[in-house]
Amino acid sequence: LDALIYREYLDATYTTIKNTPLIATDINEPRIERRIPGTVIYTRPGERLYVHVLNGDTKPHSFHVHGLHYGIDSDGSWPFGVQEYDGPNRSDAICPEGQWCYIFDVHEDSIGAWPFHDHHMHIEEVVKRGLFGGIVVRDPRCEKADLEVPIFFHRLTANVGNALFDSGSFNAGDLFTFTFNQEGTFEYYCRFHPMQGRVRVTTAGPLAATINILDTPARFESDDITVGVGAEVTWNHAGNQPHTVTERSGAGLESFAINGRTFVGNTPTIVAECGTRVRWYVFNLDLSMVWHNFHLHGQRWRWGNEWIDTRSFGPAESFVADTIVPPVILQPLPLECECKPHEYTEAHPLPMSDGEHEHPSHSSQSRGKHKYSSQDACPDQYLEKRKKYRLQGDFLIHCHVEMHMMEGMAALLRVMQEVELSEKELDRICYQLPTVRVHECPDVEHHPCGGDGEDGWELLEPSPIFVVHGALLNTGHVLLFSGAAERNYPLEARIYEPVTRQIMPGVINLPEDFFCCGHTFLPDGRLIIIGGDTNGAGHTNNRCFIFTSNATNPDSGTFGPATSMAHARWYPTALSLADGRVLAFSGGHPVAAEVEVFGGGTWASIVGASRSFDELYPGMHLLPSGEIFYTRAGWAGAAGTQTAYLTLTGPNNGNWTDYGQQQFYDRQEGMSLLMIDTTVSPERTRLYVFGGGVSGPAAARNNATAEMIEFNGGIVGSAWARTADMNFGRTNVNAVILPTGKILIIGGHSNGQKWSPTPVLETEIYDPTTDTWALGAPLNFPRQYHSICILLPEGRVLAAGGVAPGTADPDQHSMELYSPGYLSLGARPVMSNAPPAVTYASNFMIETSQAADINAVVLIAPIAVTHHTDAGQRYIKLPIHSRTATTIGTEAPAHGNIAPPGFYMLFVVNNQDVPSEARF
């Protein structure tokens, strides 16, 4: 803690600290050495105060008080003070280790609450570090309050030095320009609003850029730019509110605070009995251009000739307000409501009170004590025995400027109340009685009404290897590797363990450089790897390997050789077929036009199926009707304008048919995936392509778009249709199907190719049923070229790899874990049993105690992804044919074109859209 405070001592040698709490019943108030402000001084008319100030800081300071009577020797305002006779100290500049005695007279016209603060130099800066306090002049004629509460609204910031650039406050139409003369990444923010931005300076960037400042919502547009060394960046104030452009590393990010703390649970939680009188001493020590207001929930005070519950006040303004603590529940009880009978459980017990005693009324007109009874209102209901109950309720205290409150300028009045209730009254109360939990914040379900819930990213330990390829094994572990990656990285793979959220220590050696290979799963769960790099010119690798995990030691496995392909393939796509064979498409260099098939341990060419896929990693998907559909998603630019499908006319024969043009047919560095619904007949198949678009004609690309084509039992009669647009344009985008049937969009960049310096950190979730997008929690690190994202059996998503453009070492080793919002929506359904294997078109049972609440059964193929390409990612919704209290009856896919043979994750999803964990 590097705050500056005025600390009050009880002796002339400054050794005995006055440790009286600022607020007697604030359960969150920190110990004296961490308290902000350091003190509040209480006095009364007729007194003379001698305030001896010793400067324990390394810089000059002074002491300036509002509202009292003083001479110029005690004003403390630089440079209008006086100098001591025999030393350097001044009344407006006490030197380090120096002292000054300030003298104040307290008259009747000083009754009230008055702030004091440093008035030497840079007043706002030191006040924001905590160098302030208050003097309260009590009114001897006023009725004594049960509780005195000094409340300070202020900003708090660390002492981190001077910002590299700081515009100061500037207004609509103003410009601020700064020249960046060195390489680096420079983050900045607005001191007044929750706005942040970043300027990346490289040797090759443009030499000028303009950033607009907007109000609705408050933001810098664009908030992440790249310029060259020597570039001038101009911020154009295009809004109406005052803003600043302040570099972050040399200027602490400010907090909106109450009594030196921010956010409920840290700020004051003031415990008070219902009906008691609270005297509030309210100070605004935010000396900036921003005003605040003081708003109390459930309370009012008289201001002039009216009653109010909110008052605005400006910098260094203060006032006094008397209120009566409100009741937790109203008395007499509103018994007009008709409620269903309810029971109290261990989770929601009755808040019983011990003993019989009186409690105060909550009337704002009287503070007399009385014992509550409502027999006069409804005498027939109160003949039975009544019991006492101890209740607790939290009432907000906050600034009603929404941004200030949401950034932490809020506190609580925690009210305690005793009531007498009969059994009949309990049955007429339509809610759970609030129990006493004095030292805890309420335990509240974040999304009691459902919705998407609260999502978030968790940073994991960095990976010891650069991750370009990832595959979810049927053991539940994730195989990660990259190969040499043209940087001479060691040829090794690692295993990620989802339970511990760590990479296991074992090293699995790669027999070849698998960098930029293709992969998919075989029916027995092994991973087949095709092609890749040779760490030499031409990237001519035609070899094939199969990874087998170790059943007894998940930290190990082997890559065994298989028959080589006829053609070298670098950036190829591998696709599993209904008969368990594997197709290989594309790959270079040069680009292989021939399609090959792996089966029975050997490779063969598909006669008649040659097609040049210059884009590499082409998007291919097996349809339920048996055709292999080409979506134009890929790594490089694609020839022509048409999508297409391959029909296998025999085991080793096939031909291509063009099949319609997308609205935006440049899908370079986009991603495609497949969703099948077998709950309808014929099954409904939807192919989606997201983002992409780099080198095609301008009219052919729009990387903020997504398109879908739907098939119902066959290949004919369908056309591409544009869905709702994403919120952000993305190339090098990853898409992951969630168990709920929604699609998570992760990473990419807003323009350019590969190492573009415009990463998109925000995630998005697409709902196919409503054709709508929702923003999700942002990534911690960019996930662009060479990144992976994998759905895990627990329902979370692992993200790793990618490049961080503009850095000396762009290959990212960071890893993070996404928790979708459905994990915050309540208890998850649990499958107690399900068959480990099923045959096509067979019925099978799932055991779950939540059977009545299950509305979907889902199969999802394990992801094996690289370069935003996974031909095997598919979602299959199964029908529910029967249901008991503990079982769900469903049906396996009809054939291998719907679900190629192999391992799948089985999920059940309840009516709240919360999925179970998966079973393989």
Automatic annotation (TrEMBL):
SUPFAM superfamilies associated with the record: Cupredoxins (SSF49503), E set domains (SSF81296), Galactose oxidase, central domain (SSF50965)
InterPro entries from the UniProt entry: Cu-oxidase-like_N, Cu-oxidase_C, Cu_oxidase_CS, Cu_oxidase_Cu_BS, Cupredoxin, Gal_Oxase/kelch_b-propeller, Gal_Oxidase_central_sf, Glyoxal_oxidase_N
Keyword entries, A-Z: Capsid protein, Cell cycle, Cell division, Metal-binding, Oxidoreductase, Signal, Virion
PROSITE patterns for this protein: MULTICOPPER_OXIDASE1 (PS00079), MULTICOPPER_OXIDASE2 (PS00080)
Domain Galactose oxidase-like Early set residue range list: 828-919
GO biological process: cell division
Glyoxal oxidase N-terminal domain residues: 496-802
Highest taxon listed in the record's lineage: Bacteria
Chain spans, region Disordered: 346-375
Pfam families registered for this protein in UniProt: Cu-oxidase_2 (PF07731), Cu-oxidase_3 (PF07732), Glyoxal_oxid_N (PF07250), GO-like_E_set (PF09118)
Location of the Plastocyanin-like domain: 32-140, 252-302
Gene Ontology molecular-function annotations: copper ion binding; oxidoreductase activity
SMART domains according to UniProt: Kelch (SM00612)
CDD domains the UniProt entry points to: E_set_GO_C
Protein name: Multicopper oxidase with three cupredoxin domains (Includes cell division protein FtsP and spore coat protein CotA)
Taxonomic lineage: Bacteria, Pseudomonadati, Pseudomonadota, Betaproteobacteria, Nitrosomonadales
